């Protein structure tokens, strides 16, 4: 992904005016309105520049089509022939600004930066309003299509008892989604009981879940209520369900099917009314093939699936997350609110965040704490790992050059070419791996495997 804010520039010819802006922005050229709309399906850019004329469409028609596809993306119109009346009309149609095509580079850059900053401020205001209206939204911060889809799923199922399976990489916020689901429904006033299935050995996990009576096993000196019983009337969240022992999975299946269980050492049947939410960062389908997870339990859990996207696939949410974390950390620590400068925010938006949202929150907390009494956070407060670079490798344009007399590193050249193609596909798809894989006629798993392999080579 690019190091700079992403600008979609729509013009019939390669825009010369865009070249001087490459020091501050990542410019993507779309030669037609149709191609621009296709690119917007892969994710909204930070801003759009419409350079007139735009094919057969009038500036107003082009603007309306763009704003229907990406209603929250600021659109700037460059039109030499636009008079005052035209500029007013385009502004009423939704143009963020109307500029002369020959305006100087500094002015255009300043207007783009202002548009992007205003968009971020509006997003923060919308988030605050959403949290006031629906307090559970504090657990799902973001406006990316992936987060909006998850929010909508939670709204639809919050009032139901159906089981939900949340999947995603470590640190993507699976527990936050479970909390949001619990808080959004009628069980919010009842307990949310969490069990980490990978934290305890099998015999302790079974007692933790089902409870036991005195004398049920060595060391059971008292009667104990299990987590399932504690969650009666509320929600039971089973984290890392993929690590649950197979024998215990059969007992859990009965709880899901019958909503009843027995404590260890007891023949008494206890009925419960609870919602079960499970989460896993493992591929449960693969676990089933390996005989490590029961297929019938998987289908019982996977009634409503929610996949938490990695942060690198929703980089547009980083500004909202950062401001949310700063406010949360300052409030928790009892210190005056801090602000982050735009350059620091831009830096955070360009990092791939392998540890996902959890890594981002840790970085923000470190910056807030170590900045002392200072009210502003600067790029130096976020010492991120250096990006990997391909060393001494030709660019794709050089691949047509004849084989040099001294030879070349075949694997390195092919890897560089692959990396460039994959990066272009991801950029066009707005970071969405599924769409990028479709552009390249690859399976999503194949694309992900190629990225991992290439990153390993680059880092070696």
CATH class of the largest domain: Alpha Beta
Strand line-up across the major sheet = 2-1-3-4-5
- Cα shape: elongated
Count of runs of 4 or more consecutive helical residues? 17
**Which structural class do you get from the secondary structure elements?**
alpha/beta
Number of strands: 16
CATH topology of the largest domain: Rossmann fold
The fraction of residues assigned to DSSP E strands is 5-15%
Describe it:
There is one protein chain. The chain has helices spanning 33-40, 59-69, 84-93, 105-133, 145-157, 174-184, 202-210, 227-230, 246-258, 284-289, 295-301, 318-333, 342-348, 356-370, 410-428, 433-439, 444-459; strands at residues 6-10, 26-30, 47-51, 75-78, 97-99, 164-167, 192-196, 211-212, 224-225, 235-239, 260-262, 269-271, 275-280, 304-307, 339-340, 376-377. With 460 residues, it is α/β, with parallel strands linked by helices. It has four domains: 6-124, Rossmann fold; 144-309, P-loop containing nucleotide triphosphate hydrolases (Rossmann fold, 3-Layer(aba) Sandwich), CATH 3.40.50; 312-381, Helicase, Ruva Protein, domain 3 (Orthogonal Bundle); 396-459, Homeodomain-like (Arc Repressor Mutant, subunit A, Orthogonal Bundle), CATH 1.10.10.60. The strands form five sheets. Strands 2-1-3-4-5 form a five-stranded parallel β-sheet, with helices on both faces. Strands 7-10-13-6-14 form a five-stranded parallel β-sheet. It has a two-stranded antiparallel ribbon with strand order 8-9. α1 (33-40) runs parallel beside α2 (59-69), α5 packs parallel to α6 (174-184) and α15 (410-428) crosses α16.
